[in-house]
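quick one, 639 residues, struct below
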Amino acid sequence: MQDKTPLDLHGSAKQHRLAGGRHAIMGGNLKRQLKTLEQHPHGHVGRSVDDHAERAITIVLAQVDHGATKYRVEHGRHRDQEMIGELQIRKVWKKIDAARAWRGGLGGMRLALLGHETYFSSITRHHRSTVTLAGLAFNFIPDHLMTTYDRALVWFRRDLRSFDHAALHHALASAKQVFCVFIFDKDILDPLLAYGSLDRRVAFIHASLRELDAELQQHGGGLIVKHAHACEAIPKLAQELNIDAVFCNHDYEPYARQRDQDVADALAQQQRPLFSFKDQVIFEKDEVLSQVGNPFSVFTPYKNAWLKKFQPTPGMLDSSLIPHWHVQPKPGQLALPSPSPVMPSLTEMGFEEIDLSAQHLPTGMQGGQMLMDDFLPRLSRYGEARDFPSIKGPSYLSVHLRFGTVSIRALARHAMDAIRSGTRADGAAVWLAELIWRDFYFMILHHHPKVAQGAAFKPEYDRIAWEEGAQADALFTAWCEGRTGYPLVDAAMLQLNRSGYMHNRLRMVTACFLIKDLGIDWRRGEAYFAQKLNDFDLSANNGGWQWAASSGCDAQPYFRIFNPITQSQKFDAEGKFIKRYLPQLDKLDAKHIHAPWLAPSMTLDMAGVTIGKDYPAPIVVHDEARKNTLARYAVVKKS
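---
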């Protein structure tokens, strides 16, 4: 369902094959497009599209000098236009069936239209891949395709698959020989060891890498896996293998961005470029902006703009926005050093071996495919089922999205296909909205990196005085361990501690309880989830916690305080989820299981439950806590 065959060796690629890496694409019939352009010499304001977003600027065809037939190309970011080049087109167009692009002198770019050269002069920024003229897209070749490399290195990170993979696709299109590497980065792993040697995420990665390595080996290659500091290991390996260029996919978290910059700087000293591509989101950074060119801070208008860009004509999906990056190595193109390197074991890196299958956590590409195959028939019910933790409602794909063992583009295609076909449309629309939330939080992290440093998105919320001291620490520990006396909260925390997974509805319930019932700083809960969640993603985790704290973008109002009892009654009415993790309450009926301390003593005796012994008394009274929270948040109201 992810359009996957082994190593994405998906039949013939539908995309272009660039002869020598130097041809540009022009969609549709070239002569017809050029005729259209000739008939509309006034041009058309359009924006460029570039998958190499780290190098992206916006080019707008803004003005035309009719006499000289010169087209000005301007930088239009945030509507502050800047002249960066000039496009001159001659109208003598004959006997040509392709357009070619190559690097011009002084960093310019040349385009031959029907045998006549057109030149971008004085371009002071990175090259673009597309310019729109009279509504027609002329795609220029990105830098990595301007040169054919002898040896390239693909650096896998959070994209552990061999299909629909942007960096791997571009490396194979650009290099005669391609090596593949993954680094178990000590800068990431060493801090994890402070919490113990059992980490499901590291085990998930390790198992997924074994599958990826096996896929690559089937085609003559393999995966080099090292346990090292990535910022040192990648330049060193590039030098050892005499690599000409390194390819990877974007990573948006602050540490990753700094790491990638350090690697790029080290590689540049060796005269080796680092190329990075968008792969783990549909839209990133500045790709979805408001009409005045500003980033969104409220989800619904962002979603509407996202959907409009994703589907500019109702019912018609712009497939160029979610390309399928085919991976089709030629015989002998994938390479592996000799002798073949040995993958370090979990124990060698200081971690315990874990049987993830026993924890119902399928790994790798096959695990992602299995979960997707299981979910798609349930898609029609997603909207109604996703909020109830005792039933099979979610996709359970979050950890696979986190580590890239599924393709976000494939998931978006499935959702759009269901919406357009009318089958499972309602559930698909809700699920697509969840994928859009993911893009939204990545965008927020990009434009507001302060949130990764513990700052509230809304600064006034940093004035709130949270509970501190020994009593607060004891309450926090009870929350972490599932001993709050509120069954739904406790069952959810036990689910997290035992499996590394927590149902999304319960993430909201438990977060709101910690913040607004216990009065504890949301940052402590954010850090605990970061430690425990298999699918931990900094942007989404921070966004979720700030939503619960009312300090984030598009957050719930501060006076909206979840009642843990009514949430339990609404979303686990019969107590099935509660009983799964709190078997000592198994004999309580549906009326009393949500607040056992309120049950008559006879009911508790018959169920074999003694409050304070078999199950704790509540550590806080919700109605009193609500009043304290409103008082605590008064500093925000006064602002």
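Residues 85 and 121 are 5 Å apart (CA to CA).
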